[in-house]
Protein: Alkaline phosphatase D
Amino acid sequence: MRNAPRGDGWSRRQFILRGAATFGVAGFGLGGGLFARPRFDAYPFSLGVASGDPSADGFVLWTRIATAQSDAAFLPMQGYEVEWIVAEDERLRRVVRSGRGVARADAAHALHVELDGLAPDRWYWYQFRCGDAASPVGRTRTLPAAGASVARLRLALASCQHYEHGYYAAYRHMLGDDLDLVVHVGDYIYEGSWGPQVRRHESAEGASTLAGYRNRHACYKRDPDLQRAHAAYPWLVTWDDHEVSNDYAGLVSAYDEPSDTFAARRAAAYQAWCEHMPLRARTRATLRMYRRFAFGDLAAINLLDDRQYRAAHACAERGEMIDAGTCAELGSPARSLLGTAQQRWLDDGLARGDARWNVVAQQTLVAPFVSRDEAGAPRVWADGWDGYPAARAHLLGHVAERRIPNVVTLGGDVHAFYACDLKADFADPDSATIATEFVGTSISSQGDDHDARVRDLDLNPHVRAYDGRRRGYLRCDIGHDAWRSDFVALDDATDPRSAARKMRTFHVENGRAGVQT
Ligand SMILES: [Fe+2]
Structure:
């Protein structure tokens, strides 16, 4: 059994049972009972550890008891008592919190622990123990206190990590970046298979049931580079479509699944997602994935959910290229992308924002991208913001009207790097640039048609840079006076040991919207 070394803090610890962060061991509907001192014949922390959703005084810790064989079904139907500690040092000697929780069978033996009352703006280390086994040691941090003067924030933006298309060398390179946060904007798992296969999912069958989605999450979480990135940094995660099904919209399947069947499928996928991500209990209970994180006076990060509440596609079943000129329903103001409540929440948050940078981290490309079809006629992609032009006009109209400064949108989904000027009126290239956009390429999912996009750049002068050839991530180094974004590209995502290099660097100056090269 591969046991991680155990810090001294375990022997000296005193359990402090604090409020809702810990559980007693009785009365939790544990079905077959509770294993307080289980003996495993395989390492039970095979999915690693994770942390996320930091506040100024805490964060969420996550693990799941699962052995290497495969999935929850291999473990008996009872709960496991799991102990945890949080320390101020990486050797886990100065323990500041400890407790026990129950990894319940009805939660796939996942465990979430919410910490509070910790010091702001500092790193902590943590570890879980179950029976004789100790988890890898994870590292995480609290946010700076509200309004505190903060000089710097470094984050990596990740998206689109089809397991079969490549390896996660991108995550290995993030370990050397000295980040504060990893922000993942969706397509964390893929429900199905297509394209190149350098390795295989745990099953050739697509995920569509609770057991299937759980097994798919476990398959991804077993990747060692992904595990290390989760153990090294707190993550802010939101979802896109492939966590459920390609190009779904609200409760509408892109593949003619009857609505009640699809609703049950989506609920199963959401449940598995919540079980496997470091999310707070209220987020898991409400499925409200849009949330805000303040990094002192430097940045407010608005994390969005553009899948759960969106209207059905216009003039398309799914992400097809459509003719905006003839699709009458496309521009209907009734067709929302974010849903009314989230849009209002975002409007209010941006209008009230007093941080230097107003970050909107969401799924995909906000800027329009007009492509030519084979006959040379203009087409737009129905599944992105181009499929919801009224939603985009509302967001950018709000930024322009309220003169909200230093808005930077971050996105993924399109498997390519973009740096864009977001305009008050995209039809008029001379209109004011009111915000800045960066999109990160995919971690591993196969790229789009780079050459075709390059040919269409003349139709999209607000796109200041584009590159769809490489997999990798976007690295952002954010200061009071300037924002820097690097396109970090892998040489070859099909090689787990691939090198990475910085392809391009862009800046945004405080008070001046738009990309500077
Ligand atoms: Fe994707």
About this structure: Residues 160, 187, 242, 413, 445 surround fe (ii) ion (CB under 6 Å). The mean pLDDT is 93. Residues 259-276 form the longest helix (18 residues). The domain at 152-516 is CATH 3.60.21.70 (Purple Acid Phosphatase; chain A, domain 2).
